[in-house]
Design brief:
Layout lengths: L2 H7 L16 E6 L2 E6 L10 H12 L7 E6 L18 H19 L5 E5 L2 E3 L1 H8 L2 E4 L4 E3 L2 H4 L7 H9 L1 H10 L3 E2 H6 L5 E2 L5 H13 L3 H16 L2 H16 L2 H11 L10
Parallel strand pairs: 2-3, 3-4, 4-6, 5-7, 6-9
Antiparallel strand pairs: 1-2, 7-8
Helix pairs in contact: 2-3, 4-6, 6-7, 10-11
The chain binds 3-methylmercaptopropionate-CoA (MMPA-CoA) (1HE).
Length: 277
């Protein structure tokens, strides 16, 4: 494990018991090894204020040691209305760069944190809200979800990593369309375009996301590490380097006691099959 990995897991000390509970813009619920975090500014449609971004950053840096997956959702009728526009008005250029870099740090703590994160999306998933969803590892959408990048209408550009992450999900041309024309995708379109992984019926999203998270939480930690940290980097490498990195990661994962135990369980007929036969 790299020191960063160890730091993020807070090994040894663990977060102060009340650290997550003290974050007033997030609601925290435990479901076994799964932590459910809800953005909690429903009166402002969960718009991402500086304080909410800071609290998200804090939460993902200090997940309890025994958490193995996170579900991230929004309180009220919407997942997230994006950047809190009321805070933008007074910001000068230097402060705007620092602000964007702050979002990058917070969302990197999600994407390159310790455990996979499943975003549960409904209502508005717009602007920075879509950027936040893109930093998660899986996305589940209810039928009410609407995806948009109103930055174009507001005279802005994405600043929360959207120009890096969203083209990798939906393609550059589709993202340019959303930003230039204000095009809105519904949940089914978003699934077709690779923005979301799963569609859930109305009111069923949380159960679906929790079930997926439980499954994810059952994986070996080294597999989660490899998928979260190695896979996206390998995908950016030239094929020759990617194949080499893959071999190293593959050997590291296979050598863990947990992988050895799982292989033995399969060979002894005690493990689930990969597909129904
Ligand atoms: C907000 C925000 C916000 C709502 N910042 N206060 N994002 C946007 O351009 C989206 C702007 N919001 C909307 O289009 C709509 O609010 C929604 C479609 C999300 C929801 O509509 P609705 O009818 O349910 O709510 P509402 O009546 O519009 O808003 C309720 C309150 O939330 C109201 O405040 P109030 O004090 O008058 O009650 C709104 O002002 C407030 N509110 N959204 C601040 N975004 C790092 S770069 C990222 C760049 C971006 O994200 S740009 C996209 C910004």
């Amino acid at each position: 494990m790299t020191p960063a990995f160890r730091t993020l897991s807070n090994r040894g000390e663990g977060p102060p018991a009340d650290l997550l509970a003290g974050l007033d813009l997030l609601r925290v619920t435990r479901h076994g090894a799964v932590l459910h975090l809800r953005l909690h500014r429903p009166d402002k449609r969960n718009a991402l204020s500086d304080r909410l971004i800071a609290q998200l950053h804090t939460a993902f840096l200090h997940l309890p040691e025994d958490v193995r997956a996170v579900v991230l959702s929004g309180e009220g009728d919407h997942f997230c209305a994006g950047l809190d526009l009321s805070e933008l008005v007074e910001r000068d250029t230097a402060a705007a760069v620092a602000h964007s870099r702050g979002w990058h740090a917070a969302f990197e703590a999600i994407q390159f944190g310790r455990v996979p994160v499943i975003a549960l999306l409904h209502g508005a998933v717009v602007g920075g809200g879509l950027e936040l969803a893109a930093a998660c590892h899986l996305r589940v959408a209810e039928p009410s979800a609407r995806f948009a990048l109103p930055e174009g209408q507001r005279g802005l550009f994405v600043g929360g990593g959207g120009s890096v992450r969203l083209p990798r999900l939906m393609g550059t041309a589709r993202m340019a369309d959303m930003m230039l024309t204000g095009r809105v995708f519904d949940a089914a379109e978003a699934e077709r375009h690779g923005i979301v992984n799963y569609l859930a019926d109305a009111g069923e999203g949380l159960a679906r996301a929790l079930a997926l998270a439980e499954r994810v939480a059952g994986n070996a930690p080294m597999t989660a590490f490899a998928v979260m940290h190695a896979l996206p980097r390998i995908a950016e490498q030239a094929p020759s380097e990617g194949l080499f990195t893959e071999s190293l990661m593959s050997a590291l994962a296979a050598a863990t006691p947990e992988a050895q135990a799982r292989l033995q369980a399969f060979l002894q007929g005690k493990a689930a099959k990969a597909v129904a036969t």
